[in-house]
Structure formats: structure tokens, C-alpha cells
Amino acid sequence: MKPSHSSSSTHLHLLILFLVLVLFVAAAAGDTTPTIFDTICGRNQTQDPEAFDVNFVTTMEMIFQNITESGFGAAVSGGANTVYGLGQCFGYLAPTSCQICYFQSRLKLPHCLPATDSRIYLDGCFLRYADHNVSADATDAYDTSVCGNASTNSSAFNDAATRLVANLTAGALNQTKFYQVGSASVAAGVSVYGMAQCWRSLNASGCRECLESARASAVKCLPATDGKALNAGCFVRYSTEPFYLAASSSGGGSSARRTIIVALTSVVAVLAVIGIIIIWKKMRSKDDLIDDLDGSGEYIRSISGSHLSFKYEDLRKATDNFNQINKLGQGGYGSVYKGVLSDGREIAVKRLFFTTRPWVDQFFNEVTLVSQVQHKNLVKLLGCSVEGPESLLVYEYLCNTSLDNFLFDSFKKNLLDWERRFEIIVGTAEGLSYLHSASEIRIIHRDIKASNILLDERFKPKIADFGLARNFMEDQSHLSTGLAGTFGYMAPEYIVHGQLTEKADIYSYGVLVLEIITGRKNHNSVASSDEGHSLMSLIWQHFNAKTVIELLDPCLQKRCPEEQALKVFQVGLLCAQASPNLRPPMWKVVELLNSESKELPLPSQPPFINVKGTSSKSNSSESPSVVTSSSKSPFSLNQISVSQLDASSSNVNSQ
Ligand SMILES: *[C@@H]1O[C@H](CO)[C@@H](O)[C@H](O)[C@H]1NC(C)=O
Ligand SMILES: *[C@@H]1O[C@H](CO)[C@@H](O)[C@H](O)[C@H]1NC(C)=O
Ligand SMILES: *[C@@H]1O[C@H](CO)[C@@H](O)[C@H](O)[C@H]1NC(C)=O
Ligand SMILES: *[C@@H]1O[C@H](CO)[C@@H](O)[C@H](O)[C@H]1NC(C)=O
Ligand SMILES: *[C@@H]1O[C@H](CO)[C@@H](O)[C@H](O)[C@H]1NC(C)=O
Ligand SMILES: *[C@@H]1O[C@H](CO)[C@@H](O)[C@H](O)[C@H]1NC(C)=O
Ligand SMILES: *[C@@H]1O[C@H](CO)[C@@H](O)[C@H](O)[C@H]1NC(C)=O
Ligand SMILES: *[C@@H]1O[C@H](CO)[C@@H](O)[C@H](O)[C@H]1NC(C)=O
């Protein structure tokens, strides 16, 4: 027996076991995605969305551990920008269903970010996060009710439902888990079912207060056949449907039927698995060529055996348990840590804000594709971990961190002489040009900025954070923040209309080039800049007055070829023209930078300059802020612009 064969058959057995388990759980849980009753996002927004997001993720991970053990979890994380969280599964959910329900709520709740206090109610569980301790909240201004459409005109039903709800809300108080279900028959074939549940963090008096208010608001739904009260500290429901029996794992005749269904489903599942395996084996024996990426065979094989798949445990060890000391920085989609693998290889590990568990296969395909996009000016994606409690991406590690750490530091900027800066400008253009046209999959970066340009030991630039934006970040269900780029770098058509094409990257690149040679940050609004002018308008004025060379970074003055510097100014302005059509494509930019000729097109339009009154002065004075759907911003990327964004990005390929 060949060793390779024996190892692949072990994989096969594990695989069968895994698939059977997955299908069994899916069958046992019935309809696996619980209905969302309501999502309530708070009206206040956090001042620091990035820090808040990080704490949000940590808090949610902590709740996950507790809620799967006991059906209830409360947690807090973060010093500044503290995020409190509270999750409660309703008494009628079995542990597996509780996990699924928590998972669904965890997935949907980030829609509300950057609101500081939001909650979601599902058929089976509740989840809330806030910037303050909400454990004792019984009722508050966000309390609401959700009533069914259908109604009955039987007064007997109304009476029975009213009595039942009163009985259950009083009874729940006497239960250790603050939970009570019950039913009453109204007429032949008609019954009313109900439940009352307080979160376990309340004390008896808080629970009483909450249930009393919820009872009153639930019965206001009558004569609807279904009424739900959604309070800060409890949940009450009545319905003509036996909703808690459908979800519970114990109970009379319906349970027997379910057992049969589960058994049947399992048999079908096993048969299906055997079928898949036979097909898979056939495909393998026919030829060893790599089949197409959509084939399930390829997916299964790539996950289990791929060199792109890292073990979560290994990465946790490599980063010393995600020790703060190893933290390299914070990107739009997650925080990045330095790690050293057991074989001594240095890596950068990114913890994603969103979790990919439901899309493991798509995500893995995406990682596979992006890992094939390789260029000397692009940070290499080494792989990912999708099986642990959170999703991780693994990148090559670059020792000189990112460009912004040098460019905007009055001491360290001296390390960037003209040759290095020019090399960074050209290298970034080449990397971007490759992303836009030369690679197999066409990639719009969306967030070109100084902190996304990493530097290796010889100060060669590599663009970070590209590619995985394609499918995952576009879909709002993954995370609402992080859709937008960074303000000072964003193209006007992207900010105002949400149009996203390569031209938006070219604009950002133009801003970056001008920052590199002036050594100044492009502030996001006129108001926040010291001179009363944005960097862009300043450069434009000086360019027209033919005095632009005065704006060269003081530490470059007299230490660089003036003609070449002028050319770079001009290229920067060409790329940052307000009209997307006037900006040259990246391959052209590379050509312009490398050519000896002095013939350059003249920029005909001033750059997009002013976005007035977008963000508060205090946080825009130092760093450009990330655009979030702040109510203050006239350009917030709301639902409308996001859908335009999706439409336009799918058009890109056909242009
Ligand atoms: C929103 O913020 C204001 C001012 O900080 C505060 O007074 C108010 O209570 C907050 N509202 C909510 C719903 O948290
Ligand atoms: C949550 O889990 C942690 C560790 O698993 C445990 O120490 C803590 O007591 C739990 N808290 C609750 C409320 O169950
Ligand atoms: C939140 O408040 C409750 C009581 O109101 C308290 O028991 C709990 O320890 C608090 N949680 C934190 C994290 O401070
Ligand atoms: C309630 O009614 C509206 C319009 O009459 C309909 O669109 C909606 O689907 C109904 N919802 C349910 C749960 O039946
Ligand atoms: C309501 O009552 C009317 C007449 O009493 C009857 O025709 C109708 O079917 C009833 N509707 C429901 C939903 O029971
Ligand atoms: C609720 O109803 C049950 C059965 O009808 C009864 O035994 C129980 O005492 C009632 N509880 C309350 C609080 O009324
Ligand atoms: C709750 O329990 C107490 C005693 O433990 C009892 O006196 C009271 O009647 C009960 N209340 C209800 C509503 O069942
Ligand atoms: C219940 O909790 C509330 C809020 O934390 C507190 O004000 C009240 O004193 C507590 N009641 C009892 C009986 O512990």
C-alpha cells in the first residue's frame, strides 16, 4: 500500500464523518436559519468606529463561549471604547439550535455599527451590544412590539390569549431561569401558545417590571393571531402556532415524527455522501489535472490538504495568543499581528472583523484566487485559517511596516530620500497596474493610502489589503463598516455617487503621490487644514503659478533632480483630476514615470478639493477619518449608494 493512498483514505473517512455530522445537525435543527423578528439600531454613534469594532468582536467571541455552554452570556471588553454585550437563548432552544441562533444574530447585528447601542431579536435568541453596562436594563425607550398580519375575530381567542400571557408572565418570575411556556385550547382545533422569558442578568424585581410592560404591549397586538413584545430585558410572545414545540427537542408525538425525519434525512445524507465520493474518486482516477474551482471535489481537496490552509492553533501560538505586543496595526477589515511560525518563518496574521463560517467554501476559493495574484509590489497572501473560532488571513511579514510611519514622522522621513521615494511611487504604480489589468482576476483595491503601502527591508513598496474585498466586503451582510475607503483619498465620484471603478484607485494613487513628494498629509477637509487650504488645492494653485517646486518636502529640497520632481507633481495631479475619464490608466502612469521624455499631458482640471463639514474637527486634525454612515455626513454611504456601488462594480469588467 502506498503511503499517499493510506493518508488520503484517512482523509476520506474523516470527511465522511464530518459531512454526516454536518448534515445530521442541519437535519436535527430543521430550518437552520431562525427568523429575525426585529433589529433595533441605536441613534447615537461612536466617535471611534475602528476601536469600537475591535472591542465588539472581542466581546462577541466571549459571549459565544458562554452562550453555547449555558444559553446565556454577558461580556465586556476594551478600556476606552468599551463594548458591553449580552446574549440570551430562549428556554425552548436546544443547545445546537442556540448556537445556530446566536451565530445568525452575531452575523446580522454588525449592520448597526457604528451605533453605540443595538439589539436583535430572533426566533429563539436575543443579542445586544452597547457602550454601557446593560445587564440590569429591564425596559427602555427602544422597547417595541411586532404583531402578525392575520387576525381572528373570535373573542374567545382574545380572552384566552390575554389570560395565557398573564399566567405565563407571572409564572416565569417563579422559575429559576425566568422562563415559562404554556398553551390553552380555545375551540376545536384552535389553541393559543405562549412564552415569557427574562434575560438571566436581571434580578426578580427587574424581571417583574419588564414582563409587566411586555405583557401589556403583547396583548395590544390582539386580535392578531401572533404578538411579540421586544423589551430591553425580556421577551413575551403568544401565537396560534406551537412555535416553541417546533424548536424544542423534547415533547410528545411531534418529537417521534421528527426523529423519523431526522433518521430518514441522515440515510439520504449518507447516500448522498457516498454518491459524492464515488464521483470524486472517478474524477480523480480519470486524470490528476486540477479540476475547475467550482467543482465540489476541488473545494474539498483544497480545504483539507491545501498548503493555504493554516491551523488556528498554530497561528494562535505564533502570535503569542494575539498578544498586544505583537499587534502591527489596524486595517479596515481587521487587526494585524506579527507572528513567528514554529519553523521560524515570520508572518503577519490578520484577524477579520467578520466571521466567514457560513461561507467557508467561497472564502477559501477567494483566498486561493488571490494567493495566485503575485507581483513584486504586492504583499503575498500565504493562506488562511477558517476552522477556528474566528477567521484569519496569513500574509508575508515586512519588517519596515508601512509608508505612513515614515512619511509623516518628522525624524523618520529623513530615511526616505528622493531615490527611495521615486522607487515607492513607481513600484506602487506597477503593483496597482498589475491589479487592474495584468492579473487573472481584475481587482479594484478601494483603499490605496500610505498605511496600505508596506515597505520591505530595502524600502521597496508592496501594496497590502487587496483582493478579498471582492465578494465579501461588498455584501453588506458581512459588515457595514469597512465598505468605504479612507476619506482624504476617496475619489469624488465614489464619495458622492458610490461609483467604484479602477479610476477611484487612480485618484487615491494621485493623492498618495502628492503626499509622498510633499511629505504632507492630505487633510480631508478645507476646514481642518492649518493653512485654510487642503493640500490638493494648495498644490493646484502653486502648479498654475509654476511655483509647485516650493511644496517639495523640505528634506528633499536641493537633494533631488528638479525636473523629475516636477514630472511627479504633474503625474500626481493628472491622476487626481476630478473627472474620472481624464485620469490616465495605471499602465500609462507607469509609462509616464519611466519615460525620459518631457512631454506630459497637462492636468486640465483641479483635483477634487473640498468636502465641507463632514467630520468633527477634533478627530480630523490628525488622521483622516474613515467614512462611516455618520448622520452628519452628507455623503454617507447609505443603502442607496451601496447598491449603486454594487451595480457599478459589476459593470467594471464589461467596460
Ligand atoms: C445619546 O447621547 C446623548 C449625549 O451623549 C445622551 O444624552 C443620550 O442619552 C444618548 N442616547 C442614547 C439613546 O444612548
Ligand atoms: C463565561 O465563561 C468563562 C470562561 O469560559 C467563565 O469563567 C465565566 O464564568 C462564564 N460566565 C458566565 C456568566 O457563564
Ligand atoms: C453590570 O452591572 C451588573 C449589575 O447591574 C453587575 O453585576 C455586573 O458586574 C456589571 N458588569 C460589568 C462588566 O461591570
Ligand atoms: C403582511 O402583509 C404585508 C402586506 O399586506 C405582506 O407584504 C407581508 O408579507 C405580510 N407578512 C406576513 C408575515 O404575512
Ligand atoms: C370573521 O367573522 C366573519 C363573520 O362573522 C367570518 O365570515 C370570517 O370568516 C371571520 N374571519 C376570521 C378570520 O375568522
Ligand atoms: C397558570 O395556569 C396554570 C394552569 O391553568 C395554573 O396551574 C397556574 O396556577 C397558573 N399560574 C398563574 C400564575 O396564574
Ligand atoms: C411563586 O412562588 C411563591 C413561593 O415560592 C408562591 O408563594 C407564589 O404564589 C408563586 N407565584 C406564582 C405566580 O406562582
Ligand atoms: C435589582 O436590580 C436593580 C437594578 O440593578 C436594583 O436597583 C435593585 O435594587 C435590585 N433589586 C433587588 C431586589 O436586588
From TrEMBL:
Residues that bind ATP, according to the entry?
350
| Segments crossing the lipid bilayer | 260-280
Q: Which residues form the Gnk2-homologous domain?
A: 34-134, 139-243
Q: Does the keyword Kinase apply?
A: yes
Q: Does the keyword rRNA-binding apply?
A: no
Annotated protein name in UniProt = Cysteine-rich receptor-like protein kinase 2
Cellular component GO terms held in the UniProt record = membrane
Q: Where is this region: Disordered?
A: 604-635
Where is this gene product found? Membrane
* Keyword vocabulary terms for this entry: ATP-binding, Glycoprotein, Kinase, Membrane, Nucleotide-binding, Phosphoprotein, Receptor, Repeat, Serine/threonine-protein kinase, Signal, Transferase, Transmembrane, Transmembrane helix
